[in-house]
Amino acid sequence: xxxxxxxxxxxxxxxxxxxxxxxxxxxxxxxxxxxxxxxxxxxxxxxxxxxxxxxxxxxxxxxxxxxxxxxxxxxxxxxxxxxxxxxxxxxxxxxxxxxxxxxxxxxxxxxxxxxxxxxxxxxxxxxxxxxxxxxxxxxxxxxxxxxxxxxxxxxxxxxxxxxxxxxxxxxxxxxxxxxxxxxxxxxxxxxxxxxxxxxxxxxxxxxxxxxxxxxxxxxxxxxxxxxxxxxxxxxxxxxxxxxxxxxxxxxxxxxxxxxxxxxxxxxxxxxxxxxxxxxxxxxxxxxxxxxxxxxxxxxxxxxxxxxxxxxxxxxxxxxxxxxxxxxxxxxxxxxxxxxxxxxxxxxxxxxxxxxxxxxxxxxxxxxxxxxxxxxxxxxxxxxxxxxxxxxxxxxxxxxxxxxxxxxxxxxxxxxxxxxxxxxxxxxxxx
Length: 430
Ligand code: IMP
Known about the structure:
The chain is of the alpha/beta class. It contains twelve helices and 20 strands. Strand 3 and strand 4 (48-52) form a beta hairpin. The longest helix is centred in the middle third of the chain and has 21 residues, at 155-175. Residues 12-13, 38-40, 127-130, 132, 134-135, 223-224, 228, 239-240, 273-274 line the site of inosinic acid.
């Protein structure tokens, strides 16, 4: 079996869409294992654009099985809407090519109301969530009061669960000055969608085990990025799931040895949406330049992304946290034309040098980046497909990044076009 996990190595938005698309064309099975419809991947295939939030990227290709694993939180409304939208573009979606884990937890309307209410309650210190109910749904999952896909098969149990869940949440909603949610209303909403949703439902780990036995190529499609991981990210300014590679195992029910190659998707500079620390953030002309040239606006919320220099300390940390064997470096072309490029090679905290990002939110906000400046290049790297087509300084930048992060570049992406990629090593060939 050959299998690859694609993991974001910064704060998400590293350009996973294009790389995942390239890899999914080679895979037999594409599986999502964490997050929900807070993710956003834009794929362009044969001139047609597809915006995916929850569906695995394999869905737009023929003869691929797409799986939504148990670790994903699923909004039934969002999923069915997305299925409808891709079907309208001529994509076939059926139980033959889409499998939804029966064990996945469902995002209900109450979770969205709570996500919004909790952000308001955080006052001047919001997380800047996508307001899609992700956090509250994972909270219910961990608190063991969540509703799962398989519960839709048992209306009586579902009703009981909703009554118990709303008893809990309505106290909170009342305290926030919001209307109580009627369990009957949620029950009716869910039962109306149940037949459609259940038509895709099944035991995902069994199907994956079968695929493994048959030697199929499996692509584990990560969402968000390492610094948004609930354990290893910039807590509390994180998402509510584990985004590191280990989650590919727990979020699908495959053993930890199922992933043969971990590919870290890494942007040639750094961006972040939402609030939280960001040591190399540039609140100046250069930051503006990167944002404009890199079209750094969120695909899910449309928010302007914060931009800054490449932070080699953060990415090295991500490489180690996920055991990344190589990276796909994206958006190198955005740096074209800069006289000088800075790379963060360490931090300074209270006069001491650090070569890792400290866990405390206080220290994370206080560290000062230590930069090394490298000479930029004037030539365009846009669309380069060979190393020979790259200016010497650009190659030097890439080589220096490899050295600093202690991982090789397996793929180098030089434009949003699929073929504008320099392939050093096919991650599926191990
Ligand atoms: P949540 O996942 O909606 O709870 O949001 C928590 C944090 O993760 C916020 O800072 C979001 O902006 C960020 N976030 C969630 N999903 C993504 C993503 O797909 N890309 C980048 N940031 C994300």
